[in-house]
Structures are given as structure tokens and as C-alpha cells.
Task: structure prediction
Amino acid sequence: MKRYRILPTSALALCAALALMGARAAPAAAEEGVTADTIRVGMFGPLTGPVSIYGYPINDGALAVYKATNDAGGINGRKIEVIQEDDACDPAKSRAAVKKLISRDHVFAIHGGSCSGATFATRDTMIDEEVPFMVMAATLDKISLPVNRYVYTTTPPGTSDGAEIVRFIRSMPNVKRVGIVRHVDEWANAKMESINASLEQPGLTVVANEVLDRNATDATTQVLHLKAAKPDVVIFVTYPAEGAVFLRDARKYDLAGPFIGTNGVTDLLDLAQRAGGLNAATDVYATAFVAGPVGSPAMAASTALLKKYYPDDRPQSVSFYGMSGAYAVVDALRRAGPNLTRKAFLDALESTKNLPAGPAFCKINITPENHQGCLAQQMWTLRDGKIVALGETWSPTNPTN
Amino acid sequence: MERLPWLRRLFPFVLILALLAASQVMDNYLQYIVNLVLIYVIIGIGLNFLLGFAGQFAFAHAALMGIGAYTAALLTTRVGLSFWLALPLSGVVAAVIGAGAALPAMRMRRVYLALVTLAFAQLIIWVLINWNAVTLGTDGVDLRAPYLFGWRMRGDRNTFYIVLPVTVFLYWLARRVLESHVGRAFIAIRENEIVARSNGISVAWTKTLVFALSAFYAGIGGGLYALALGFIVPDSFGLGQLTLHFSIVVLGGMLSLYGAVIGAVVLTTLPEFLRDVQALQEIIYGLVLMVVILVMPQGIVGPLKRFGILPREVLARNWRRLERRG
Amino acid sequence: MVNLLTLLVAGLANGSLYALVALGLVLIYKTQDVVNFAHGEILMAGAFIGFSAYTFLHLPYGWSLVAAVLLGGLLGAVIERVAFRRVANQHHITLAMVTVGLSVLMKGLARIPFGRDINTYPPAFKADRVVLWGIPISPQHLLTIAMAASLAVALYLFFRFTALGKKMRATQQTIVGAQLVGINTGNVFASTWALAAMIGAAAGVLAAPLSLLYPDMGTNFLLKGFAAAVLGGFESVPGAIVGGFIVGVVEMLFGGFVSTVFQQVSAFFIIILVLFLKPDGLFGRRALARV
Result:
């Protein structure tokens, strides 16, 4: 009988442990996460698992902006303190991360979320807990729409990326038949939603609509179907690796472009290299959210900033996806004044006007009616081994062939 | 059955009271994790029926959890059914589909059963992704907090008040089933189907029952998971989820109900403890899994029972190598 | 609409990779009764070893392949010795879970040096493609097909004529019996793992130019290899090869003639169908029920 005495003891110990873990004194500050000399900002993103390949570069870009702000003296005498958590691109984990940031770390605001599903899963928590939330790089429209007082984004949502693609195609001469190859996930579906809607209008017809699975290593059937359908232009809504596989097989089976990609394949030089060389990526276009190709004068300042704080990161477009949001947050914190409250911060965010977005192509504009701060993009292509910006539409001064 | 000392009989109540008391001081983060732990206890018990007690090497548990989650979410959000009806239905729908997975188990050896159930699971996820009209595809489904007598049970603590009683009930039910002749039949078909048959046990019926029961637990767990998350996507129920389920059962202990509890506690909280070492998280997780299994092949409950910290369970027996290839 | 021959050739090319993955799974399963869920990561490890040898050590292409295969084999033997020897008599589910832990661990380790980027593995030949009888095919695919075929022959000869091969076959039939006649089964286990890992590493080096290099590249190949192995009976070397080709071709036919929506799951669809008709796979022997 003696050996069972351990059971109630362990129950009591468990109870005490839970109580200890739970009972943490909240800081005695006037506003959560704000002290005399710090502002605590939470950040989350995929730092483990397959998607961590993008998680670190994106978050590092935003972190570099915050660090630079601190090194320049901070905001109204306060330094920004960032607490970074992992969401592994999983809704269950992103909720845990956000709940921890809010109830353990007592952050003032949260800037994070690069996976669409995982980020959307945190929306209701942010709203319930009334925490200002700047979305990092997730593009699902319903994260920031309908407009909510607490949720903002400066990354173009998926539908606007899709719309930009169709706008570009419509500006090309002699294009009537459109072929599509796409993933089936929330990222691709958001883009497809606006692509499908715009293609239903007269002038263009979809002649082939093919699915390419994530992690696909072969695109033979997709390419053959497209080739048989004789499209004038092919839209590919895929991630970089799969995009490279598609272009490689397109060349193998003599499927001619032009190929129009999303801002997921903005780094056209990387795409070409992965597809087997520059001649695999002739006549390839992609929408771009950043102001210029990595290495161009437009990106020099941002690249230097990233290099200063993260010398080991290889600068690529995603390295700059988090920066625009960080600039919006910093700007709003500054304008909210020394007497920082969440209300003042949200009011400041909602009155963001023509704010330069660092490496992003757009100017950030946020109003109480519109929380998607950055919608403008441009189209890029490859010419003679270099990325060339074409503007928003196809123009005869930039002939393709 | 041996007479239990009063302390032991009291233990479950002490634990429940401790959890209830702790929930009064827990913050949302801890409460959310505790909810997930309880949900994984249900799921672990369900998989333990199949994998541990009945010895069926089946890989559809995560997909069945997904079916439960989608049933609960779609019935409440899109059909407008009350959550209190949708939750049991999520168990029932999963059980019906899960019983279908018993069909291949009638005639296939374990590797084939493993792959057929895995293929079945992949097809289910594929349907969840591609059947947009019903499942909303990869956009995912919301599940709003249910009402109880006109009072909205919003937030993690209220979710806990739903999850805890369900977990306690299902734990109790599992114990009753395993101590009954049904539970002995499960073990009999694991040990030797032919001996089981010659003892008058209907192998077909018992297998169908254990697959359905296991899927029922997965379905209820899925329904509660949808409630705790408030939003589900098909990807949540893929190979990662399945790996977690198997890890819970094997790490905790395959022939034990305590095992499911311990496995759920350890594997749900481990990533939270590893938050500060993000880059090493997978490495540590993988190492823990390997080392624990190598050192304690019978799971964590093995040594705990040997040293008398946990009582012997009525049905538990030491694992031995039960089958070699025929 | 779509050329059947082109699809068949592409299917065989992909299938040869699945066949190589299936071979590694089958060898370990035959000997130790373990379903090796870390086999995809062995493939990944092989690819990264070859990649490092080629890019960082500037070894010639052929030698980097040799390095990948040898180090892959060493890795397999070490895994067996460190992780599996001590639990070899435990329940098969326990053993399978050890491989699951290993798979998570290996992905985590690979992420430290290689987790920040998608790397490119140069193909063995400069030419993008050759056209044979009007069907375009990449030389990399030809190499893979040739490799799978020659490995199948080599394995047949190995099991038939070498002493180690015979010991392996004896151990596969009965472990106790093999021990009774004086075979060091520990060595046999280690060499089996080494052999399986060598084939896995070779598959990785061959797959990497087609799939790109990243720590999670193995998962998809494992699933397809698993399907191929089961289709072939899971205990048969020729079965694994044929199973691999079937999975590859079925995918292409589904994608080509039904819809690309179905392509990824078509292999699983076929598996369910085949196993319902023939519960022991196409090449498996019916297990005897012993009373």
C-alpha cells in the first residue's frame, strides 16, 4: 500500500507546478509591454520545419530594421525589444506562440506571420486580446479582410498579386489563350481567386488549367497538356523549387512561353539557375513586391542594412518582405508620441500616409477603412542575364523578343 | 480484480480537482497547452486501442482526426448545427469511416495494412483539399465558440471546461472497455488470431469494433481540436500529425492507458520547452524520441511500473517479440 | 492528345528512382523486419554528401558520387550499430518509431548547414536532353534507369554468388538458424544497413539534380518508394524494381490521361486497388498461417 503514497503527492506537486507556471505577476506599467525605456514587440514565423527556409530570411529583415532603429537612438527614448517565437507553419503552434507572446511576454504589439493558414489562425486571438497585429509576409486575404481595428498588413495580399498578373497579360499584344499551372494550397488559391475572376471577363480564355503538387520533382504531364492546348501565355502559380522544375520540363518538351509567375518567384536569377541555366528562363516574367532586383541601386540601402546586422544571410527578395511592416510599425510608434498606448499606436497606424516602405515598391498608406497598406507591384523579367523591371504593364518600349 | 487502496481510488479525483484549481490561475497560453494535452490524451488512447492493445499497424489515425475536426467545424459553421450535437457526430462519422479501414485488416499482413491505411489517409487529405464545395479546400474552416444555455463559451478556459469532462469520460470508458471481455478480445487477436478464433472470438467483429472505437476517439479528439484552434486546414492532419500520434503512444507506452497520458503530456509540452532553442528543436525532439525508445523500449510507463510509481494495469503485460515473419 | 510513349518514358525514368528507394526499404525489411521511415533522409544525406564533395571539396563528379555512396554506407552501418543492435528484438512498432525519431533528427541536423536555401545539384551531363526516336529524355534520367537496372543485376549476383550475400539470405530466412550455423548475424545486420544506405545514397545523388536539394527532399521519395515496395511484395528485390516502374508509369498515365489533379494520389489509389485484389502485393508470397 505504501507505494501508492506517491500518487496524491504527485498530484499536489502537479497542482503547485501548474499554479507556479500560471501565476506570473503582470508588469506594473501603464500599458502592456511598454516601460520607461523599452517597447516589447512580439514576432513569430516558421523557424523550424520545412518552411524555415523562408522564415529566417523574412524575420531577419524585419529584425534588422528594429535593430537599426535602436542603434539610431530608439523611439522617443525607448528601445524596441523583439521576442521571436516559432510557429512551424502550423496553426496549432502559431496560436501557442501568439498566446505565449501575449500572456507571458506581455508584448505591446505583434509583428509576424509568414504562413497563410498559421497566421489566419491567430487573427481571432489578436482581436480578442486587443493586441495590435502587423502581418509579416502572409498573403491570405482574409487575414486582413474584413478590416479590423487590430490587424494590418503591408504585404500585397494574394488577390492583388493575381490581379497584377492578369493586368499585365491583358496589356500584352495578341494574347488570347491562357494556360495555367498551379499549386493547390491557400497561398496559390488566393492568387487564383483573382486570376480566375479576371479571366472570366471577355478577351482571354483559359485553355489549360493544370495542377502541380508541392514538392513535385516532375512536370511532364502538366507541360504536355499545356503544349497540346497551345496557349499564348502560361501563368505559373508555384513556389520557387516547383517553378524551376516546371520551367526545366517546359524546355525539355519545347513548351514556349511567355511564362508569368507570381511574387513567389521574384528572384528570377535563382529560378533560372535552379531550372538549369539562364536559357531555361527566357521569356519568364514575375510580379515583384520589392523596389528592384537584389544588387540594384534601389535596394542598396536595404541590402547594406541587412548585411550590417545579418552578414551571414544571403540577400534574396524574401529577405526584404518583412522590412516594410517594420518601417510602418516604427513610424507609427514614433508618431504615437512619448505617452505610448495601444490606442495611440493604432490611431497612428491608421493615419499612415505615403510612408516610404524601404525595399518595397509601394508607398504605405493605411486608413481606418483600409488596412492593406501596400498594394502596388511591378513586373520583372530577365534580359541578358540581368533582371529588368518593366513597370506595371507590358510596354512596347520593352519588347520581349 | 485486486482491491484498490483508497488513496489510489481517490487519485483521479485529486488530479481533476488539481487541474480545475490550476485553471483558475493559468494564463491563456498555459490553458491552451493544457487543452491540447487533454485532446492528445484522447487521441493517444484511441491509437493505443488499435496499435497497442489490438496490435494493428494502421496509419489512418491523423486523417480520422481530420475527419472528426472537419465534421465538427463544417456541421457547426456551414450547417448551423449546435456544437453539442456536432461533437458526438464527429466521433460517429470518424468511427464509420474508420470501421471501413478494418476491411483490409481482415486479410492483409501488417506492412500492407500500414500502406493501405496510409494510402487511405492520403486520399482523405486529398479529398479535404480538393472538395472545395464542401470542405472549403485549403482555405480552412472556422469553428466558433459554442453556446451553453445562451452563454457563449469563448476563450481557452471555457474550452477547457468542455475538453476536461470529455477527456475524463473517454478515459473512464476506455478503462471499462479494456477491463471487459471486449478488451481481452482485443489482446487475444494481437497475440494470436488463430488461438483467438479457436476460443470463440469473432476476429472480424473484434477488428471492426477496435477500428471503429479507435476512430471514434480520433474523431472526438479532432472535434475538440477544431474547437481549441477555432480554425482548421487539411494540412494539419498529414504526416506530421500522424508522427505525433505514434510518438505519443510508443513513447508513453503501448500497452497502457497511463502511457497515452504520459506520452501526450511529454510530446505536447516538449516543443514548448524547446522554444528557446529553435534551431536545435528538431534535433532534440528526434534525439529524445530515439533515446527514450532505446532506453525504455516499453515506453516511459515501463520503468515507472517497475519501480512501483505507477500501479500495474490489469491488462498490461510485458512486451515480448510476438511474431516473426512466417 | 498526349503522346503515350513520351509518358511511358518519363514514367519509367521517375519509376527507376522510386525503385531504388524501394530497394533500400526492402533489404532492411527482409533482414530485420523494420520499416525504415528514415530512408528518405538517408537519400537526402547521400545527396548532400555528394553535393558537398562536389561543391566544397571540388571532387570530380564521379568521385563525389563514390564518396556519397561510401559515406552513406558507413552512415547506415553506424545507425544499425548505435541505434538498432540493442533493440533488435523489440516489437516492430518500437523499431519503426526509432526510425521516425532518426528521420526527425537527420532533418534537423541537415537544416543547420543547409536549411537556409534551396541548393542546386548539377546534373551528371551538360546536355539538357537527348531525343531518342522522337522522344525527349534527359541524360540524367537515362543514367537513373541504367543505374536501377544494373543495381538489380548486381544485387542478384551478390545474393547468389558472394559469401556475404548468402549469409544475408540465410539470416533473412531465419535468424536463429543462421546463428546456429555460425553466421555472425550482427555483422549481417550492419552490412545489410550499409548496403541499403548505399543504394539510398546513390538514389539521392541521382534524384538531387531532378528534385533540387533541401532537407525535406526525402519525404516524397519515401512515400513513393514505400508504395513501390508494397506493390512488389515488400520482400522481393525484383518486385521492388517492377513496383517502382509501375508507380512511376501509373502516375504519368493518370496525370496524362485523367487529370493532373489526380496525379499525386494516383499511386495510392492503385495500391489500394491492387492490395484488395492481391493482398500480398504482385510478387509477395502468401504467408502461411501456422497453428
In short: Chain A touches chain B through 47 residues (CB under 8 Å). The longest strand of chain A covers residues 38-45. The longest helix of chain A spans residues 52-71. The radius of gyration of chain A is 23 Å.
